[in-house]
């Protein structure tokens, strides 16, 4: 098993999860600042106000990346640092923009390739208040296009761009379950606003169009001189039938991936939503205008893949409820015959299953014509990690094994199955603000001591990736 000679690898983070500096140098609030302020939304009542303080520790973070051998670093920009109010007629905050310009310069000087995500869920709060944020089909894509243009222009040295991180999460968790900002849901015990039957599909559609607009601007105005690449990052789990003998469970496995991934990837590669979604959702799923198809179809230079886990899938019968977003099925950890999908972690949704990674890489490659894939996130939490003493935490053998298994599964997909995977980012460079779960759940290869000035302590896993990649990347 092997990975291609020029394979690029490193670590990933996201602005709101690590930066802190919530009010520094003119940053405006995002929907996550507002969401965290609502009692009960974040498990430990915390927020990203300080987080890992990375806004003030760029040198320390770059030194860390260097010391553990990273060739690349994927991070996201805080839109409201750059344009505090967010909109295309709102002022630019030069200090916020300069921060990222310098960060990219410093990374390059350290020999680390930057991969910039434009949007990892932290919408400028003003845009949500002004016109409903992601729900606005006209304003949101235009404001995102403007923000993207401002950034491309200021950071010509970055050659790797990701428009959106996991639009599924922005749409479903933001507008169906209400688990993420802005917290809309039909469940009136959780939110006074929201319509889970329609809003998530509207938000998803507008994210696709905004992605298309940002890609068009890059290709027309910047790519000819800058020569970089741009794509979107989608999340999705591997699926196995609960009962392999039941054709309805086998079919539900594909449907689950279609509702998670093809919802976005089919419009990008084929210009329309999957048939399974159109059938179940009817007119609740928007239809693309010809102008929108022109923006969205063909808009990926690469496929960004975030992947963590697998599930057994059991089909459901009867008409699904209006708020169903899975595709009329159940996700389970045990199969009919009692096999377990993987060991427990600190995250209720995550159980390691490296074979699933290989299988999903193949599934995506077959459906979308073997596109170039960057794995933009992969990693794990560990059950009870936060309760251990520091000397035990840094001996994170469970995480070391997770990376070992997953990277080898990816190498087999590359050299034995013909999957065109060219890059990999471990999630995450350091423990950070794990959204609604607060700081209890840790995904870092580096321990962050929130009680002692966010001091960083690399874990065993931080140092395990370089030898692992050295052993599988071809040398010629
Ligand atoms: C990533 O998403 C995020 O990009 C990253 O910011 C985050 O820190 C990392 O995961 C670790 O969580 O609430 O039952 O509907 C991974 C994909 C999809 C995993 C949604 C959690 C919640 C399922 N995520 N899922 S549920």
From TrEMBL:
A single GO molecular function term of this UniProt record: cellobiose glucosidase activity
Signal sequence residues: none
SUPFAM superfamilies per record: (Trans)glycosidases
Listed Gene3D superfamilies: Glycosidases (3.20.20.80)
Catalysed reactions, semicolon-separated: Hydrolysis of terminal, non-reducing beta-D-glucosyl residues with release of beta-D-glucose
Domain of life (superkingdom): Eukaryota
Uppermost EC category: hydrolase
Enzyme Commission (EC) number: 3.2.1.21
UniProt entry keywords in alphabetical sequence: Glycosidase, Hydrolase
Entry's Gene Ontology BP terms: cellulose catabolic process
Annotated InterPro entries: GH (IPR017853), GH_1_N_CS (IPR033132), Glyco_hydro_1 (IPR001360)
PROSITE patterns: GLYCOSYL_HYDROL_F1_2
Alphabetical list of Pfam families matching this protein: Glyco_hydro_1
UniProt function note: Plays an important role in cellulose degradation. Shows hydrolytic activity against several glycosidic compounds.
Protein family: Belongs to the glycosyl hydrolase 1 family.
Name by which UniProt lists this protein: beta-glucosidase
Originating species: Phialemonium atrogriseum
Taxonomic path: Eukaryota, Fungi, Dikarya, Ascomycota, Pezizomycotina
């Amino acid at each position: 098993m092997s990975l291609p000679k020029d394979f690029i690898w490193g670590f990933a983070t996201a602005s709101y999860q690590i930066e802190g500096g919530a009010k520094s140098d003119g940053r405006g609030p995002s929907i996550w600042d507002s969401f965290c302020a609502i009692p009960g939304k974040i498990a430990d009542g915390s927020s990203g106000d300080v987080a890992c303080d990375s806004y003030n520790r760029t040198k320390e973070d770059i030194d860390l990346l260097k010391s553990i051998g990273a060739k690349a670093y994927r991070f996201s920009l805080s839109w409201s640092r750059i344009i505090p109010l967010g909109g295309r007629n709102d002022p630019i905050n030069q200090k916020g923009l300069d921060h990222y310009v310098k960060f990219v310069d410093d990374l390059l000087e350290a020999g680390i390739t930057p991969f910039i995500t434009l949007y990892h869920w932290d919408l400028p709060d003003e845009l949500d208040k002004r016109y409903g944020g992601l729900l606005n089909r006209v304003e949101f894509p235009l404001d995102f296009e403007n923000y993207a243009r401002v950034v491309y222009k200021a950071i010509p040295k970055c050659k790797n761009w990701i428009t959106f991180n996991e639009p599924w999460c922005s749409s479903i968790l933001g507008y169906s379950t209400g688990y993420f900002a802005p917290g809309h849901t039909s469940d009136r015990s959780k939110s006074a606003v929201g319509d889970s039957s329609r809003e998530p599909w509207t938000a998803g559609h507008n994210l696709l169009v905004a992605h298309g607009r940002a890609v068009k601007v890059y290709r027309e105005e910047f790519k000819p001189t800058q020569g970089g690449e741009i794509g979107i990052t989608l999340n999705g789990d591997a699926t196995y039938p609960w009962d392999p003998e039941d054709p309805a469970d086998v079919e539900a496995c594909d449907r689950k991936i279609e509702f998670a991934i093809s919802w976005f990837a089919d419009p990008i590669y084929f210009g329309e939503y999957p048939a399974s979604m159109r059938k179940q959702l009817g007119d609740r799923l928007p239809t693309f205008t010809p102008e929108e198809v022109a923006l969205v179809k063909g808009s990926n230079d690469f496929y960004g893949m975030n992947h963590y886990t697998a599930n057994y899938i059991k089909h459901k019968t009867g008409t699904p409820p209006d708020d169903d977003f899975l595709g009329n099925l159940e996700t389970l950890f045990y199969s009919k015959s009692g096999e377990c999908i993987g060991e427990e972690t600190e995250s209720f949704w995550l159980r390691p299953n490296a074979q699933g990674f290989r299988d999903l890489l193949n599934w995506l490659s077959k459906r979308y014509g073997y596109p170039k894939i960057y794995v933009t996130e992969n990693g794990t939490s560990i059950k009870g990690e936060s309760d251990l003493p520091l000397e035990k935490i840094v001996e994170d053998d469970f995480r070391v094994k997770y990376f070992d298994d997953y990277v080898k599964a990816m190498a087999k997909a590359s050299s034995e199955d013909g999957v065109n995977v060219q890059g990999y980012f471990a999630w995450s460079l350091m423990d950070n603000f794990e959204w609604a779960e607060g700081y209890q759940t840790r995904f870092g290869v580096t321990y962050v001591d929130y009680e002692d000035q966010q001091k960083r302590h690399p874990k065993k896993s931080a140092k395990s990736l370089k030898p692992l990649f050295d052993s599988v990347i071809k040398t010629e």
